[in-house]
Amino acid sequence: MARNETRRRELADAGLRVLARDGARGLTHRAVDGEAGTPVGTASNYFRSRDALVRGLVERIYERLTPDPEVHAELAARTPSRALFADYVRDIVTRLTAERDTTIALFELRLEAARRPEVAEVMTAFQRESFAGDVAFYLAAGLPGGAFEVALFHYAIDGLLLDRLTTSIDPDTSTDAVVDALVEGLLPGGSTA
Amino acid sequence: MARNETRRRELADAGLRVLARDGARGLTHRAVDGEAGTPVGTASNYFRSRDALVRGLVERIYERLTPDPEVHAELAARTPSRALFADYVRDIVTRLTAERDTTIALFELRLEAARRPEVAEVMTAFQRESFAGDVAFYLAAGLPGGAFEVALFHYAIDGLLLDRLTTSIDPDTSTDAVVDALVEGLLPGGSTA
DNA sequence: CGATAATCACTACACCCGTTGTGATTGGAG
DNA sequence: CTCCAATCACAACGGGTGTAGTGATTATCG
Description:
The structure is a homodimer. The first copy, chain A, has helices at about 5-25, 30-35, 40-45, 50-65, 70-75, 80-100, 100-115, 115-140, 145-165, 175-185. The relative contact order of chain A is 0.11. The first copy, chain A, is about 75% helix and about 0% strand.
């Protein structure tokens, strides 16, 4: 009997929903079964321990958040420019805001990584890869600077997402306007209004 | 017998340490007692339920993170300028980085606020107040713009702190350099290198 | 100084969780 | 078709957790 990867994914997705909705405290084997609609014990069969469950969730996030190659290709085909990069950033923000559960779960796992080295390991790999991709795109767009500038964007966007997904200090401001302002300010060579 | 506020604070501080070290999952009455060195049952006496405990932690954070009036006054006495604001931001980042436990606990509570309205209430009050203070300082420094620009800083700095306190994408870059670049870019009227 | 009320240490209970084990079921290889 | 190995559903247990309750202690006030 083949390893049932589909069901494993479903369970992991259910786990991410639970993690987003109920927090680390609510993430239990039984809760995952409840969310996935599987009989009690199923999650426990697929992820033999709670650590294994968390690791499974990180790997699933890794799978879900790697950028869509189509969108990526489409963007890469366009003429490199400042506006192109703005679109790139906006796409990321839109996607992560839409996938609220995944993004909140991601924040939970980042905090978990601060405590558990094994989680940190998978997490670091994911972040580094994602970061490297962003830098590559940035350079391909012919923009000045490099890793340092992209890191600035990462910080700002993480903070923006956290604000948007939790208690916001400025809920009335359009998210796009914020992204535009960030691109304007953090990209070298911007207007200085 | 008077309400023992000192002990209540000690318990809350212990709770914040536990929350930072073990996460929401590890935050239990008994763990708080263990951390505080008080007999089992003490935390449960002071915070009658787990919800009450969490609320107590938020209130304690509120207490601990309100800016030091001395430092604030000292800064306010200086000539308003771009460099002054940079120092202001740097002070905040330094303080929050040093108080690692508190800051991580704060992130935990922000995620918790996304789930529990009662936590969100206290959290919103705290953030709004802190934000208003920053805006006031920003305006007093005679800098162009206002709430919108300060919000940008908030996002960027939250993201920076999260990066610094968990798995960093760019651990070798100096935090001060990042802050400088943010001030340079996000403050209207900066150089455009 | 005595009354009073809250703190404090400690106990007890019901509940839930992680983990492990055990047959029944299932689908593919020989 | 037959056998085999992995999946699956389910049960059980040891441990930890939230919560409430109970006297003893102690500080404060009339």
